[in-house]
Give the backbone structure.
Amino acid sequence: MTSATSRAYDHVKQAILDRAYPGGALLSEGEIASAVGVSRTPVREALLRLETEGLVRLYPKRGALVLPVSAQEISDVFETRELVETFAAGKATLGPDRIDELAGWLEAMRTHAAGGDAREFARADRCFHRTMVAAAGNEIITQLYDALRDRQLRMARLTADDPDRTATAIQDHAEILEAVRTGDRERIRAAVHRHLHTAVTALRGHA
Amino acid sequence: MTSATSRAYDHVKQAILDRAYPGGALLSEGEIASAVGVSRTPVREALLRLETEGLVRLYPKRGALVLPVSAQEISDVFETRELVETFAAGKATLGPDRIDELAGWLEAMRTHAAGGDAREFARADRCFHRTMVAAAGNEIITQLYDALRDRQLRMARLTADDPDRTATAIQDHAEILEAVRTGDRERIRAAVHRHLHTAVTALRGHA
DNA sequence: CCCTGCGAGCTTGTATGTAACATAGATACA
DNA sequence: TGTATCTATGTTACATACAAGCTCGCAGGG
């Protein structure tokens, strides 16, 4: 039996990321509580946590506002992603096992792109990047990165429907993996940089 | 009248940063509640928030463990500070008003160093850096930076008692400010980088 | 027509009660 | 002796109760 707090947390987070609770909506604790089937206390704790993650803003005695995605937020998220990922690319030492892991995620991307499973494709993409970031061995940065990817989920519809985009993405990741295999840090950084650049321009075009 | 939650939060955070609640201590909600004079509910919310800030770890049905500062945490914090600050130094465009602000903090550092007020000295130092980071205009990174500085507070006794250290720090900041005045981004980055390097080695020596 | 004041109905903030869980130490037993 | 179990105690997780704050609409006066 999972805890009431985490059920409330998962419910609200999922609803926000899926836009079931759209940006600008004002949620009340009681509303959520009855939707999830728990009391207000665990809902409150979930909202508190979501506030620190930047998904909602709590207005005293008013309710919880689902923060609309702003242009500022989009550029902040991508700028920070680039900072974190190029840092990680330059620092991480990736042994054979990590390289295998990366190759596994790339393979998963190919599979799910072929199978048309956008959700799983996105998950594999995310895990690929996360593996690289985690390999840099800085827990603060790894945690930050997870939060960034969560936020990014709200910024675009799943883009894996577009075959061009998925093909480009797979190509990009293959290049990153190739660079990782050579061990040339500067080349890795360059590949990661290019990938993020194409990703952000594609997002801007489609959003 | 400030809220019960924020009173509890301030109390616990201050106590942890001042080592009144030392690393390794296991706190209970009730204990804190009666110390602060509020009920357990706001204490709980404060602890939840402190957990996301990395100061405590909540063990279900056990209590809140004040996380001891680990070697890993120290290096993560400083590594991340360097990443953030060199980024900001390279990106921020500092107009005349911002430069005046920096000069003001530097002046404050000089004053408080002379007056022997370690606490205010540290505050001015922090504000100086924060001004530069904020000038980069990325809210996510600015928020991260604040959290990093909070964590750093636990890592060393206030070092402003040592006249050598304060003199070096003032010198470093003066160089950064000078570089900012020239507008040469690469020079700014270099000055920031040097400063952090001397700061972290001094910290390691004294801790 | 516009402004002001007031009340209804929502919301949160906080306190408190209750049940379940975790742990430590004692005790019984092989 | 070592181990399993029982029990006492402390702690949280969650529900609920209640007071106080915010908002909005409406009535009444200018």
In short: Residues 3-5, 38-42, 59-62 of chain A lie near DNA strand D (CB under 10 Å from a C1'). The radius of gyration of chain A is 19 Å.
